[in-house]
Fold these 2 entries.
Entry 1:
Amino acid sequence: MNTEPKIIGFLCNWCSYRGADGAGMARLKYPPNVKIIRVPCSGRISPELVLRTFREGADGVMVLGCHIGDCHYSTGNHRTAKRMPVLKKLLEYSGIEPQRLYVNWVSAAEGEKFANIIHEFTEQIRALPPFRETMESRTPIEIKPAEKEAVWTSA
Amino acid sequence: MDKRINELGKTIEKILPEVDGVIGLKSGPSGIVAPHLFAKERPEELAFLAVWPKEPVPDTLKIILRAHPDAKLAIVCRGCEERGIVEMFKHAQLKLDNVMLIGLQCEQSEAEFCRCAKPYTVHAKLTVGQPIQGVADPLTNKIAAMNLEERREFWKQEFEHCIKCYGCRNICPQCFCNVCALEDEKWVQTGRLPMPNPSMYHLIRAMHMTAKCVACRECEETCPAGIPMAVQFRLIARDVKEMFNYETGAVMDQKPPQLLVLEEGEYQRTGLPH
């Protein structure tokens, strides 16, 4: 039961990846659950990509980018800041824990912040059941709310 | 219903000489209602004018404007269809310079059928019928009140019925991309049933409807499995209003938030860390 959580971290090339590099260079310890994928910009992470990562079996997804205003492409991370909150809400409305998706900003100098974030997020995901398991669990509940029936028969 | 048809017929008759055509609904010989282009050369067709059931007329307008860019047209549109046309205009799908909007206000029974919050037109200069108040949406409120596990089960059981006919995407006035992510094998495994859980198809579509869905509910009506997918779009629309202060179809000059950079104070409302 107590399997290690699988976490995929999408890190922007210019800030967060350098920050992770810095954490490694400073010999900071952090949990090995996060598999890092380097991307040109956090704005490159489309919601489809996050959803597919979940579908492939990730328990948590991290999207780290430059601080707002520091983007290498000037407004790339504005897209992240607009998309990801909406995606979190959508996950919530679809019955997936929104805390499985984590968005934060890490600059190239913030190695320590990076290590802390990984600690924090891994603990957060460890507290949740594995993603696949939650999707397969089947506790029959009453569906077909009366409102829906009424709507479809009134036509 | 009849009263509005008479009034609408008179309005169309009045403006027919000024325009090349008026897009409205016409009931055919077998009683099937479909979008139709009324022209001044055939005024007798106005006898078959219809208003219900509603059809996706924004798409009809787009198709006609693509073929005849300089045509001067008028279109009979309800509140939702007007919003659809305005959003299409914002996304550069059609030009409204030569288009006259004739607003058709919905009746109480129609608004209740659609669970519509805004069954009235805003931009149309000519209107037919009396505007009424919007009605509450019981299903959306019910799902908003559920906890995570209940929602998960609800959507799982709903999406299990999906036969992937892509009807919701085809009928949507806001689904106009030339290359559709839903046909991409990378994201959605095409032709495979039942849907995996979580359903990539529906989540991606819901995400793409952010700040675009005009709550016309055509997708739900066309769905052969009766999946109430517009509920997700409506819940997200509430958040978009809160975060980005954007309502689809409300203001003609306001650009959709996904086309703009962050504005002052928007970041604080998204709930992301500082």
Note: The mean pLDDT of chain B is 89.
Entry 2:
Amino acid sequence: MRPPRSGLLRALRHLLPVATGAGMILAWYGIHLTMSSEQRFLLPAPHEVARAFVDEGPALWGAALNTGGGALLGFASAVALSFLLALVLSLSPLVRASFYPYLMILQMTPIIVMAPILILWVGPGLKSVTIITFLICFFPMVVNTTQGLISTDRNLVDLFRMCRAAKWQEIFLLRVPAALPYFFTGLRIAGTLAPIGAIVGDFYAGNSAGGQGGLGFLAIIYSSRFQMGALFATAAVSCLLGFVFVAGVIALSWLALHKWHDSFSQSDA
Amino acid sequence: MRQEGQPPIVELRDVDKRFGDGPPILDKVSFAAGRGDFITLIGPSGCGKSTILKLISGLIPVSAGRIVVDGMEPSSAVERLAFVFQEPTLLPWLSVSRNVEVPLRLQGAGAQRRAKVVGKALALVRLEDRRDYYPRQLSGGQKMRVSLARALSVEPRILLLDEPFAALDEITRNHLNEELLAIRQQLAWTAFFVTHSVAEAVFLSNRILVMSANPGRVHDELAVDLPYPRTEETRESQEYQRLVGEVSRILRSVEELKP
Amino acid sequence: MKRTGEFRRSCAAAALAGCSRPAPAPAGGAGGLPRIRFKTDWYPQAEHGGFYQALARGFYRDAGIDVEIVPGGPGVLVSNIVLSGQVDIAMGRSDDMIAWASRGLPFVIVGVYMERDPQAILVHEEGPVKRFEDLNGRTVMGVPGSNWIEFIKNRYHISFSLIPSNFGLAQFMADKDFIQQCFVTNEPFYVRRNGGHPRTLLMSDSGFRPYRVMYTTQRYLREHPEEVRAFVAASLRGWGDFMNGDPSPAKKLIATGNPGMTEEFMDYSIGVMRDAHIVAGRPEDGERIGTMTPRRMQEQVDDLARLRIIPQLIPLDKFVRFDLAPPGLQAEAQ
């Protein structure tokens, strides 16, 4: 009796999302068709969005690369600098006490307000997009990594001290590896935020080199021209970009953690 | 095991300890350990037994009094000491063999020497076949044995053990007690052991110090004259049972003491 | 009141689209006259002068309508507001109308109030750009999606990068090589006032020649043709009076609605509108205040189709009505 039923369950688990998706597309068509002709253009039908993907394909692809590139640059620099700052902050509670309030202030200031200031200082283009992305990613990473660095097991620190470990040994052989799970938590948060930061940067900083704008830039153009299908397609591409980033981060954290950390537990024993 | 006529390897003289402005944890604690002693500290919670271990290891300083370890200040003698904590305290991102070699790595020992020592230590705790496992793949008892192997890797003269087997079930605990004594046959270290278990105290040690709390003081000392090597049969002997009863009685009287 | 089924469907659509229902018939305003809400594209300014003149001098009342001018502002999407029925008529540009009509948006141009679009490129006199061709390889600050961008690139066979406009002048004043989009009636005044030497390149000189128009939805026009006609006629009368007569009534109204506005600035704008033939156009080109020709509309449709801003040609009657202006201003029928 058992094998057929568990096979059925597994099939269901794969089929159900597809069925729900099909149902949602049908509902979408339904809503689209019941809208008055004056309102209908606001919710393009699924096939219109699909057509926009084809028509605007090259523009969407170029914009995705553009935004993705800016996001990656901002993200990578945020990772590097946040790690360094976290190392410094982990050294002493006094250092932390003197810096944390200002970090908090910077974190609370909305990016939307900082972006125009940045553009005026730095100028438009890739530089600004990178900085905006950097700012969005930087703080979650600093906070998480610092937390990880100072949360090392007290006994392990004692062990190292008893072995007369040098400070750098304590930091790089003990605190840093122990902080990796926290670091990757911050990385995951930043990875979700990076594409958003780059798209927001687009709205203010415009295009980067080569005359090609990013996804945010395209969104402005499509919305001003009421090209709704293309606008939906842009949203879908932005979503995909977000997935790519998160997938990348998860892959990285798998590489680093899967052997020893519970977040990648092996299947139930 | 104990070597008579030698100067004590560890001596505490009138040691006081308090943390900041807090109440005194230890008050005028004095005792001396000879080479080869296995001393257990037992007593109610808050009597400062773990604190004594930390003081001997040099991890924290005394507030008053003196500790001499192998003729030196505790912080200078640190190479001769090894500490086994209550939790296995393994580095989860390292395999068993890499965990064992951590102290040697920190000291800068070469790869060949490390391999040799690690091999020996793992053989002592009978975990050679698990050398490439990661801590999360080990049971509680196995993790503790790795922790022990790590302590032994530095060839310590003094071994400090702070309730190392408290989190384990009784059968594993008894096995590990026997293993510990078996290792002691081969390597002659002096041990300071903290536990809540009277049975464990009597089984392992040749001297038991019963402490009282608030503040911590040495209330009573017993000699355990059971011969080494000790086995499961020792647990059934009459002398063993009697000693367990006596220590329990002293403990009870200590717990009823008013501060 | 609407029937239940229609009501429910339009509410569902409205909930999705975030718009309110299309407005019912204009309720009686002052003295029972039909009320029209007219949306402008910015805070009150001289570039809206004719409408304010008509309002201040009672031309709308004379024409039998009660008009309320609703100013726009930064970030305001006038087209959405018209679609949702929050206003009845609005100001816009003919090239935008064509692009929207090609997407199926139900707008219709009912009249023209400026023969020439005042959009221009703003540069420093000392800067490297003297003509449109000099924009090649440079960076320009403008509104993304503006049709002039594709037009200029195509017309002069050049390419340039675009930064989204922040509608300010800070970067321009700080950098002599900076190039940005502007209104010829507006930004140069401030540049000069801050000691700069501005030069403008008027878009319509490049062959990009949209009209500045009054527009509404097809439905509103269908339901209120007489009010629309009255509005167009009175507005054009106001523009004529504003440009040729004494503009003080309008200026007073504008200053009340926009506390930052100065007499000096309004006079400047009016002067430029005259010198650059913004409102009335060039008579030698056959242009007259308030006229729009099918030929020029068709040119714009052709241009936009050629630039692939619209996917294919669309017929003029899809987005413009030539017969709503007062007789004498109407162009020949197609």
Note: The CA atoms of residues 141 and 172 of chain B lie 7 Å apart.
